[in-house]
Structures are given as C-alpha cells and as structure tokens.
Amino acid sequence: MTRLPWRRLWKTQRTAFVVFLAAFALMLFFAGRAVFFTIYWMDPSHADLPIEVWMTPGYVARSYDVPPDVLRPVFGLDPDSPPMHQNLAKLARDMDVTLEQLQLDITQAVQIYRQAAPK
After folding, report:
1. What's the pLDDT tens digit per position in 46-86?
2. 3-state secondary structure the chain
C-alpha cells in the first residue's frame, strides 16, 4: 500500500506544509471573493441603484460607474484622502446635512461627471 504524500510531508516538513496550506487557503479565499464581486457587479440590476442610507461612497461610485474621486468633493474630501467606509446616514449626520440633500448632491455630481465624460 502506498503512503499518501501529505503524510510524509506532515512528518518531515511540518512547518513548510502548514505554511503552504495557509497560503493555499488564503488564495482560495481571495479567488472566491474576486469571482463573487465580479459576478455581483456584472449584474445589470446593480447599476444605478437608488441611493439609500446603508450605502457607502464606494458602493455608490461602483453602482453609478464613476471614479471615487467624483464623489469626494461631495463629502468635502480632497482627492488624496483615504477611502470612506461609513454609510451615507452617518456621513450626512457628521456633515450636518439631511440625507435628502446628500442624495441630491451625489446625484448632481454623477450627472456632471457623465455629461463631461467622453462616451
């Protein structure tokens, strides 16, 4: 009966085998995420969704197919600032504006970008 190769690796090169398994698990995780997000954003039903309180600026930028830099001035940020991971309700509260006003500002920024962008 032949011995399985991973048993020999486990006995002789345990550290290298564990590192390999961890790297393989990470590779599977990130490959799965890439496939999931590719399928999710290719679905036309996720394009131009109505702006809601749970969305983040990055989600809005992806949904409306605009660069994140287009939305940064709406939130009073410069182009070099890090990405924002807070939802629109919290951002509106922090900026001391109503959610409706923030939604209107986002919509206007997207329309201005789309009118100026080459097709």
Report:
1. 888 899 999 998 899 999 999 888 888 888 877 777 777 88
2. CCCCHHHHHHHHCHHHHHHHHHHHHHHHHHHHHHHHHHHHHHCHHHCCCCCCCCCCHHHHHHHCCCCHHHHHHHHCCCCCCCCCCCCHHHHHHHHCCCHHHHHHHHHHHHHHHHHHCCC
Q: Are 57 and 67 in contact (CB under 8 A)?
A: no
Residues 6+ apart with CB under 8 A from 55: 49, 63, 87, 88
Largest CA distance in the chain: 73
d(CA 19, CA 14) in angstroms, rounded, equals 9
Two tokens at 77? 């940020």
In contact, 21 and 9? CB cutoff 8 Å? no
Are residues 65 and 117 in contact, defined by beta-carbon separation less than 8 angstroms?
no
